[in-house]
Amino acid sequence: VATFAELQLAAPVLRALEEEGYTTPTPIQGRAIGPLMAGKDMLGCAQTGTGKTAAFALPILHLLQTAPRDMAHRGPILPRALVLSPTRELATQIGESFAAYGRHTGLRGVCIFGGVSQGKQVRALREGVDIVVATPGRLIDLLDQGLVDLSGIRILVLDEADRMLDMGFIMPIRNIVSRIGSTRQTMLFSATMPREIMKLADSLLKDPVRVAVTPVASAAPMIEQSMYMVPRRMKSVLLEHLLQEAAVARAVVFTKTKHGADKL
Ligand code: AMP
């Protein structure tokens, strides 16, 4: 897909993209957005920096924007999309992306994470939101207090699933999923695909579309890189030589061990 316009995203979403200055979808966006707009489940292998946040945020905004809220439901509007994320920082970033791409949609969101008082988060839920971005721990807290209603969730995203598993969130995740109906669209994104992730994906996803993208190159173009293969005993001598030779004023040296750092 060459342009966002070709994807037929809802007009308010396209307008926000134009304002953001996005013209061309990144590879993961080009491959993920269409199937997600069509309601497919997805297993995405992608790292941060590939544009994966927009790859799920844009179709979610499109779907929520084009599907009416449940007007029969009394009380505050219920969230229809839930994004689980490992850390407060990442949740905040995802929330900001939804706010930016969704600024013309009238859809509302809230970020839920620990380490801060829950008052503001609970107020937002009471006033009604369409999208919840949450870390698993605080969400469980609020669920246990009866302050969140997940019965309206139709779209579930697990972002950076491998990190969530590493952080011991498997039980909270299963707990949260058990409170969401099975009539839902589910997306799981992970930088790596170890066995536990595949198992989790198998249990949560239905006939998923699989998308994998290679990480974007991370080396800064203005930095010249070189490598020297030398025997261990030569390393400190070579380092000293290089630092003197190039008249280095400032340097960062990484070593493998604490002991090695002390010696160096
Ligand atoms: P992410 O991988 O989701 O963390 O996104 C990496 C960065 O790329 C973010 O700062 C986005 O604002 C930016 N970005 C995402 N998609 C596009 C796009 N299609 N064109 C330009 N920038 C983008």
Summarize the structure.
With 264 residues, the chain is α/β, with parallel strands linked by helices.
What does this structure look like?
By secondary structure, the protein is of the alpha/beta class. It is 42% helix and 11% strand. The chain is built from eleven helices and seven strands. A seven-stranded parallel sheet has the order 3-4-2-5-6-1-7, with helices on both faces. Strand 3, helix 5 and strand 4 form a beta-alpha-beta unit. Helix 6 (136-144) crosses helix 8 (170-178). The longest helix is centred in the first third of the chain and has 15 residues, at 52-66. The model has no long low-confidence stretch (mean pLDDT 93). Bound molecules: adenosine monophosphate (AMP). Adenosine monophosphate binds at residues 22, 24-26, 29, 48-54.
Which secondary structure elements does this structure contain, and how are they paired or packed?
Elements: H1 11-20, H2 27-37, E1 42-45, H3 52-66, E2 81-84, H4 88-101, E3 109-112, H5 119-127, E4 131-134, H6 136-144, E5 155-158, H7 161-166, H8 170-178, E6 185-190, H9 195-204, E7 209-212, H10 235-245, H11 258-263
Parallel strand pairs: 1-6, 1-7, 2-4, 2-5, 3-4, 5-6
Helix pairs in contact: 2-3, 3-4, 6-8
Bound molecules: adenosine monophosphate.
